[in-house]
Design a protein that fits this description.
alpha/beta, Methyltransferase, Methionine Synthase (B12-binding Domains), Chain A, domain 1, Rossmann fold, 53% helix
Length: 212
């Protein structure tokens, strides 16, 4: 019989194979897939996220936990097709044009996904037009922009202006982050939210969508 507490611990500790094996056993035993996600996988990511915030865990541990969670989630997601309760919101994320940095953005995307959001990751060096297209195509609730260079952070304003010009600004919340970005800059360019790290990004996204 699957030990679901052990499943949660496996994700927190970044043990991919254990997380996958325990998820498989739980599903074979008829455990509700939605229960696995909400009560164990999301809880695990919240726990490792809090440890990261409290400096009890670091980037490698967070990435390993996200990898374990994704491995388990890959088994569960096909069973959830058509269920509206699968995600709590849809987020398009990417590193802005001219910037090829991926680790921070990847971390944020993994945390958001692990905490129940559907995440469309556009990767790095993403143009304003590509962000506009993705927000339209996926009917996104939130657009998350990342930059790691002072030379590229101003492109975030270009993206926000493009959302405005295409009539999307009232429909999508925009959050920004990255090493050179701060709350003052976020306010100046007209973003709705700012986060300094991956765990904060989850709280920010939930606040923007009024999710408890």
């Amino acid at each position: 019989m699957a030990d679901l507490i052990q499943l949660k611990d496996s994700i927190v500790k970044g043990r991919l194979n254990d997380a996958v094996d325990l998820t498989r056993v739980a599903l074979d035993e008829g455990t509700d897939p939605q229960l696995l996600i909400t009560d164990y996988m999301i809880t695990a990511m919240q726990e490792i996220g809090q440890k990261f915030q409290d400096k009890q865990a670091y980037v490698p541990e967070l990435l390993m936990a996200a990898r374990a969670m994704r491995g388990a989630l890959n088994l569960v997601q096909p069973l959830l097709v058509g269920e509206k309760s699968v995600t709590i919101g849809k987020i398009v994320i990417g590193t802005v044009f001219g910037d090829l940095h991926d680790i921070g953005k990847h971390l944020v995307a993994s945390m958001l996904e692990g905490c129940g959001f559907e995440v469309i990751d556009l990767g790095v060096n993403v143009s304003a037009d590509a962000f506009v297209k993705a927000v339209k195509e996926h009917d996104a609730d939130i657009l998350a922009l990342s930059a790691l260079l002072t030379t590229t952070m101003n492109y975030m304003k270009t993206v926000i202006d493009a959302m405005d010009q295409n009539g999307l600004r009232p429909k999508v919340k925009i959050m920004v982050g990255g090493a050179p970005v701060n709350k003052l800059f976020a306010d100046q360019i007209g973003a709705d939210g700012y986060s300094a790290n991956a765990n904060e990004a989850v709280h920010c996204a939930k606040q923007l969508l009024n999710i408890q």
